Predict the structure.
Amino acid sequence: MAKTQRAWYSGMLTTEDWWAVWLGLTFFGLGLLTLAGIDLVGWIAYPKKWVFSLPDGAIAKKIVTIDKAFYALGGKYSLTAKDTYKALGPIGSILVTYVVFTVATTIGAYFQKWDVKRYVVGWTIIFFLTYFVWFIGHHAFFSASVVDLKKSHFPQMFTLSLGGGASFILALIVGLIIGNFFKPLARYLSEAAKPEWFIKTAIVFLGVKVGYLPIKAVLQTAHLGSKGAQIGHEMANLTFDLFTAGAAATVVAYLIFWPGVYSISRLIFKLPRKTAAVLASAISICGVSAAVATGGAVRARPVVSIMVSALVVVYAVIELVILPGVFTHVWPGTSDPLVAGSAMGMAVKTDGADAAAGELLDEFMRTKVEQETNGQVVWMSGVITTSAVMTKIWIDMFIGLWAFILALVWVYKIEKHEGDRVPFSEVWFRFPKFVLGYFAAWFIYLGIFFGPGQAGAADGMSVLKAAKAGAVPVEKGMRKLFFMLTFMSLGIITDFKKLAEAQFGKMVWVYFVALFLFIIPVAVIIAYLFHHGMQIPNMASLAGATIN
């Protein structure tokens, strides 16, 4: 069967995939300028957890008043323009963020031959609606955890403790309301509601996060070192152990979880191959990012990735509510806190929900062990959270490799017909190009760490601090903004009437069965095999140590 010959650079200026690369790498590159003392990314507006007014005795630490609900990240992290970005204030930072991303995304819309006028109007509505939902989702009732309440000296109060996950689910709900009850508006906004473009761009920003991880770890270790040589040495060893043991999660996710979930989808629920592949990646690897990457690799219908992404968000919130308590009070319990943390990293399929669940688990377990030992055992905060996040990061790092492997399988096995000659170039055309941006951002930050940063040596610390000033606004502010835009857009373009046609009901049950009867139990077992016996240093045994 003859195939149309295409140049290897085909679509570089006209496809969504490539424009995720250009958009992501543009802001990644601007972030690198902090190494030269130029901060051009600190304007990004980011939310804080807030209340209308602070109760008596409370302090504005983790929770602030409504007038400070947003801030420019550069006002906190910039080394050269902190005062400038602070002066923007909440409204100013949001407006600058809007102008910058309106210009950047409109250029992409123009080259992709979209209706630019309609795009700008739709983008404006979606952008400000997204920021409004982001604001609502960060009210303390939705987002504040017991840790936040404690650090801000709040009285005991009921909160949903959903962290950033509250904003994601609210964005999805608002989008779904528009998409199903205000259909004329949804059709108009569809020109700007581009969840695949937004999530692919967010994945490029995720590459910054992965590459920045060792820089962050070194800077945190320097801070911990002030607590004394003993705790610094123990924490350094523990960090290394967590890093190496976390590699096991990658083997589990790709060699055990994926084939298992794929088999459940195909053999029990009789789903089509492409749908099963997207579901398997989402449930067994890393949720929305893996679903989109896999959908691109196997050329699944866009609606499949969209519906699977919606399921990922819903189930992640369920896990966030249930798993910290179960892991603390049932099993693994406080006897194996790092087993529980690692299992959390393998089980919860979104970065935000994983970090939030890890934070809750950290608080629950530290409180329980102190009560059980009458204060004879005290763990430093954040170690259990780190075990959850580090395991998740290992999994995140291999999204691109897995997408490439699946592209090979689909081209040379699944869709290869007798007599066909499939050129190797077809693998390139199927390969999700945004992953190139992800890897570029990751490896360049690793190069900074091992090169001018001297892997954390004293002479390289100034370089690492400068790199942090440019990395945080991108990997934290821009990445999460584009995740928010993704969830809002997912809802807007999702029509419930069409879900039945795509076997959505079966997907719900596949996700439930695979997650609760396969993924979570196996994750705990594997985490036990690789993390059992690893202990958190006991701060109570160190005379004069400061615990935080």
